[in-house]
Amino acid sequence: MYRFLIHLVNPILTLINGRAQITHKENLPDGNYILVAPHRTWMDPVLLAIAAYPKEFSFMAKEELFENKFNNWFLRKLHAFPVNRKHPGMSAIKKPVKLLKDSNLSTIIFPTGSRYSAQLKGGALLIAKLANVPLVPAVYQGPLSFGQLWSRKKRRIAFGQPIILDSHQRLTDDYQQQIERQLQQAFDDLDHELDPSFKYVMPPKPKDDDF
């Protein structure tokens, strides 16, 4: 299902919006890794997964999306797994760690957790350390809704150099903040490389989203 949809959706996006500009794909490691990116559109997981193909990914998705039986079946076929965003618990850590260790699936994580936040959270760092995999920063610039795809504004995705956590270093607050600054700097550098004038305008937070 995952591969089928990649081969179905990518030509449709190319027909509608043109071929995506993908920069530094050579930075993607051969083994498993965590792809981390600012969350800018609901299409992020699809666009990043297509750009990094043939590597396949698992995804965290809010548990509300799994309440419908068809959605539950469909999302799990796409390697997605549910997470309670308000109270994630240890399952939000254990599941991706197990997949990174025991399968050929890498993981995509948006460290802000939401399109309506710019604050990085530490979950991706803990998962990377426990699974002993690198973090790979990435950014997306382009249409932020399906309707905007028809504007022909080009989709642009850039991958940064892998960030490898020191296996001998405890994940203290200071070390976590150091890695978070490194990630944020990588995001800023990649954005500037794609378009020096780029500035992401965060949308207003919906009233029914209390995350």
Write up this protein.
The protein has 211 residues and is an alpha/beta fold. The radius of gyration is 17 Å and the shape is globular.
Give a quick rundown of the structure:
The chain has 211 residues and is α/β, with parallel strands linked by helices. It is 36% helix and 15% strand. The protein has a 7-stranded mixed β-sheet with strand order 1-7-6-2-5-3-4, sandwiched between helices.
Described by strand count, sense and barrel closure, the largest sheet is: 7 strands, mixed
Q: What is the CA-CA span between the terminal residues?
A: 30 Å
Helix content: 25-40%
What's the order of the H and E elements? HEEHEHEHEHEEH
Proportion of residues in extended strands: 5-15%
The shape is globular
Low-confidence stretches: none
Strand order of the largest sheet: 1-7-6-2-5-3-4
- Count of helical regions: 6
Quick one: how many beta strands?
7
Helix and strand composition category: alpha/beta
Rg over CA atoms: 17 Å
Please, what is the average pLDDT? 88
Q: What's the topology here?
A:
Blueprint: H1 2-17, E1 21-23, E2 34-36, H2 44-52, E3 57-62, H3 69-77, E4 80-83, H4 91-102, E5 106-109, H5 123-131, E6 135-141, E7 156-159, H6 173-194
Parallel strand pairs: 1-7, 2-5, 2-6, 3-4, 3-5
Antiparallel strand pairs: 6-7
Helix pairs in contact: 4-5
List keywords for this structure.
single chain; 211 residues; alpha/beta; seven-stranded mixed beta sheet; 6 helices; 7 strands; 36% helix
